[in-house]
Amino acid sequence: MAATAAPVRPAAPAAALLKTEARLMSREPGAIFWIIVFPTALLTILGLIPAFREADPELGGRRVIDLYVPVAVLLPMIVAGVQSMPGVLTGYRERGILRRLRTTPARPGSLLTAQYVLHGAAMLVSVLLALTVGRLAFDVRLPGQPLGYVLALLLTALASLALGSTITALSRTTKVAQTLGTIVFFPMMFTAGVWAPVQTMPDALRHIVELTPLGAASQALDQAATGHFPSLVHLGVTALWAALLTGAAVRWFRWE
């Protein structure tokens, strides 16, 4: 009696695609550096400035380096969301890879999921690295409200990846995606507090920045770091941006 072939599990093509994308991503040292290494390197450079390690009465006795840990946490999300992922997906669409995937068991949606998983994993590694170095090298306290911190991180990651998907949806070519990503990149850096932590901004400017996804996320992460559950307003703003950007990406995304 002939042996019956085992049915192909639906998850197999997606798993194979994830493995392939992980291998391709590992061959991109630039993306790995900017997503995982750069945020902690910047935190280390700032932490070596003596004045940044001294308590500041104007900051309620906190140090500048304490305020820059949330910035280092947000940086990989900016890089992955608006610089790395759009270029990859737009390049695949431009070369017809997404169109050809439609004829295989590995659907284009599986590729999008794989990119979300891989960039999300890179973000997580970067966050853990920044928190570890901050704690061991500069005695920055670990988040006092872990649940609120994780929730803020999750919402921020979703918003960043949704923004990257929207950029991909609006870009016909890789060059356009890179241009849009660069245009968005620097305002996001500002609202994340790279040049000046959000907590130190003038009240009027801070209130405006808090309406942006990363400005609200920065405040939520800082609140969770000091032991308070993040404000529902800040979490709500970040969640709203994630929902709006996801809707825009779904509405305008094209596989070809």
Would you spell out the secondary-structure blueprint of this structure?
Elements: H1 11-26, H2 29-47, H3 64-94, H4 97-101, H5 108-138, H6 146-170, H7 174-192, H8 203-209, H9 213-225, H10 232-252
Helix pairs in contact: 1-5, 2-3, 2-5, 3-5, 3-6, 3-7, 3-9, 6-9, 6-10, 9-10
Task: Looking at this protein, list some descriptive labels.
10 helices; mainly alpha; single chain; 256 residues
Commentary on this structure:
It is a single chain. This protein has 256 residues and is mainly α. The chain has one domain (28-252). Helices cover 73% and strands 0% of the residues. The chain contains 10 helices and no strands. The protein has helices spanning 11-26, 29-47, 64-94, 97-101, 108-138, 146-170, 174-192, 203-209, 213-225, 232-252. α9 runs antiparallel to α10.
In short:
The protein has 10 helices and no strands. With 256 residues, it is an all-alpha fold. The protein is elongated and about 65 Å long.
Distance between the termini: 46 Å
Counting structural domains, the number is 1
**Low-confidence segments, ≥5 residues, pLDDT <50?**
1-10
Topology order in helix (H) and strand (E) letters: HHHHHHHHHH
Biggest β-sheet strands, sense, barrel: none
* Tally of contiguous helical segments: 10
Overall, the morphology is elongated
Q: Which radius of gyration do the C-alpha atoms yield?
A: 20 Å
The chain-level mean pLDDT equals 89
Q: Tell me the fraction of residues in β-strands, as a range.
A: under 5%
Helix content: over 70%
Structural class: mainly alpha
State the total count of DSSP E strands. 0
